[in-house]
Design goal:
The chain has helices spanning about 25-35, 45-55, 65-85, 195-205; strands spanning about 85-90, 95, 100, 105-110, 115, 120, 125, 140, 145, 150-155, 155-160, 165, 170, 180, 185-190. The chain has about 210 residues and is of the alpha/beta class. It has one domain: UDP N-Acetylglucosamine Acyltransferase, domain 1. It has a 6-stranded mixed sheet. A 5-stranded parallel sheet has the order 1-4-7-10-13. Strands 2-5-8-11 form a 4-stranded parallel sheet, with no helix packed on it.
Length: about 210
């Protein structure tokens, strides 16, 4: 965003509400996540998303006493996902539907929000640019494709249908239907259309 280096980002969500998508029930959402991860029960991406969804669902339990054991379970499994799946996705990060976490390892999803129909690949980092503003985190739009090793930092917006190439370092907004490549990333219009861009990003991730 223009002036992101000078202006403080707005506060992050407090994390005291159930921020799962409101248009689908918890178990239907879990089933959809399972299908999105190719219906593989051992897919690390499925379990990372399951515990993320669980962490949000528990916030719908109004009684703190009843919610306490659920919070203990969530905190243990959140750490397990870090250790065994190589992925950090805290429950306050707003995550849309049909998000696909391809492969695993080295994934830090410290975003403000991640939209629906997004693909995220291994060794991707989403997070703050400076400790001077810990609220400055990326926002990933719907249908974005994030290549392996991509680094997206600060209060930036990746617009819908944008593609971030493998190993790109993104420090500024990427408009919708654009491609970010290089270090630091250059923003260029997409030439081949969504299918070609997704294929290129997938090839780079392998």
């Amino acid at each position: 965003m223009a002036g992101a280096e000078r202006q403080k980002a707005p506060p992050l969500p407090a994390g005291n509400v159930n921020a799962n998508p409101s248009d689908i029930s918890f178990w239907a959402l879990v089933a959809e996540d399972f299908r999105t991860q190719d219906s593989k029960i051992l897919a690390q991406g499925f379990w990372v998303l399951f515990w993320h969804r669980f962490g949000n669902w528990r916030m719908s339990v109004r009684s703190r006493v009843l919610r306490a054991p659920l919070s203990v379970i969530y905190n243990v499994m959140f750490k397990a996902c870090e250790v065994f799946c190589g992925c950090k996705l805290s429950y306050p990060v707003t995550v849309g539907r049909r998000v696909r976490i391809d492969h695993f390892g080295g994934m830090i999803f410290g975003a403000r929000s991640i939209g629906s129909d997004v693909i995220l690949r291994q060794n991707t980092t989403l997070g703050v640019l400076s400790t001077d503003d810990l609220n400055a985190k990326p926002m990933i739009g719907d249908r974005c494709d994030i290549g392996a090793g991509a680094v997206i930092l600060g209060h930036v917006r990746i617009g819908p249908d944008a593609v971030v190439g493998a190993n790109a370092v993104v420090l500024k907004d990427v408009p919708p239907h654009h491609l970010a490549v290089g270090v630091p990333a250059r923003i260029i219009p997409r030439r081949g259309g969504p299918a070609d861009d997704r294929a290129s990003a997938a090839d780079a991730a392998e």
